[in-house]
Amino acid sequence: MTLQDLEPYYAKAEDKMGTTRTNGIPGLPGNNNFKVMYAGAKRLGYKGVHTGRMSINSQPRHGRDACWQMGFCFQGCKSGAKWSTLYTEIPAAEATGNLDLRSQAQVLQVQAGADGKVAGVLYADKDGNQQVQKARAVCVAGNSIETPRLLLNSANAQHPDGLANSSGQVGKNYMRHMTGSVYATFDRPVNMYRGTTMAGIVTDESINDPSRGFVGGYEMETLALGLPFMAAFLDPGAWGRGFAAAMDMYDHMAGMWLVGEDMPQETNAITLHGSEKDQFGLPVPNVHFDDHANDIAMRNHAFKQGSAIYEAAGALTTIETPPYPSTHNLGTCRMSEKASDGVCNGFGQTHDIGNLFISDGSQFTTGGAENPTLTIVTLAIRQADYMAEQMSKGAI
Amino acid sequence: MKKTTGMNRRQFLHTGGLAAAGVAAVASGTVLVAPDGAWALQLQTLDEHTAKTLLGMSRQIYPHDTLADMYYAGVVEALDGAAQSDKDLATMLREGVSALDQAMGVKWLDLSEGNQLATLTAIQDGAFFQKVRGTIVVALYNNPLVWRHFGYEGPSYEYGGYINRGFNDLAWLDEPSEDASPKAS
Ligand code: SF4
Predict the structure, then answer these.
(1) Which of A291, A324, A349, B107 could form a disulfide with A295 if both were Cys (CB 3.0 to 4.6 A apart)?
(2) Cβ proximity of A107 and A122 under 8 Å
(3) pLDDT higher than 90, residue A80
């Protein structure tokens, strides 16, 4: 699969999501946190510094308002400026009359028939009652932890190691991006929490330059946490005078997130837990992740560069914050040319079962350095076109 | 710019057992009263000495000298409330405090600041300290009145966001180029 194959679909995704700095949509106005990043990065000589390509309206579009600069983008944007399927694609799909949405349900098993195809799903509805839904095709999009868990929990006599798992790759190569944060305090107020949380980026380090001591690259993006999260995550477990003094500087702080490509490693994996079960009696997922030496070297470089940006802007102190517990989940059902190397082909169609598809970030073979939603949406649109074509040909 | 929050002092005082001393109507149980009478906390489970020591501990763990005791009392209220439905926690808090009192043969509250710190540092990896720290980090910093002290203005939906309330009012650095940061439309 090449970039050329994906380009028309990236364009469709950017249009659907209203990504700024594409389709003639202007960038977002920078907030205070961005001003600090910008000043420091420019003084260091960085070139690619702007308010990012954000799927947040910088002007009213498709019936949704422009960003109000509230700063709760991660919690769910109450003004509707930020693209979310909850109030864009899902209502649009419902309006076609072709969508039957069953919310608060959990699929327990994808059921395989004797003909080697999947026949439907067994699910628990919102009242906990088990139901079977027959299907011509099944697309799994449970994110990189629940997608492999579902395939593994769907094992049967014909597929003893789980569905679509003849390669043994289901659950393997779990990725979560190299991450970390740098916060810095200044002698004058910043009020970083005001405004769009992540509309600010330095792109210069997002290249492959092994002379830095690692392969792959990373982005530096503005980030602010509200006071309660800041207390919990600035320096997890820290207490005493030093920590309290840092918190006292909260409104004089600027912050950034570091996000880069982490190494796929087969030993980083989602497996089924040996004894713990969920409320339906199904094994819960066990998540194993270790940093690769490359991830550690990249984070070290990113901490140094992030701190240097703030020092150039006049920081009093800089604080290196370790990765937050939640991040981008990627990999675990990777694409591959050969069936023996991965779970699905370039369209997300599983090698083993023609009418079973992987439709989320689990398909990724590597994580890249970027926030992944645009690529996930791009792959999903392309997959939908492929499925429509295969169905009309009668292949599915 | 005038700072605003969604909750005023009066509302906060009436959300739990923590009350302004003048309006506290006490039926039973122990009451922790501020030395200056500014606030009073009705305890459900903990005894007065345990509660006072936990308050002192909270001040040492997250020492913000200009933040009034009342906010730390809110932390004790959270621990007291949790202990009400959790017997093991109540025991852990009582025993933890009495171990602190025995650590140097002088009641912990009567120790010098340096000695208080040393005794806490010695137990910082233990379950008691971790439980107290984990509870107070939430109870202290998630209080909208405490946000004011730190200059955090919180949610802004009801005010239409920060777009007209200073999201880009920083003026002590060079302005970004129009290309990097277009004007708000
Ligand atoms: S800042 Fe974030 S939460 Fe606020 S309106 Fe803009 S996108 Fe929505």
Answers:
(1) A291
(2) yes
(3) yes
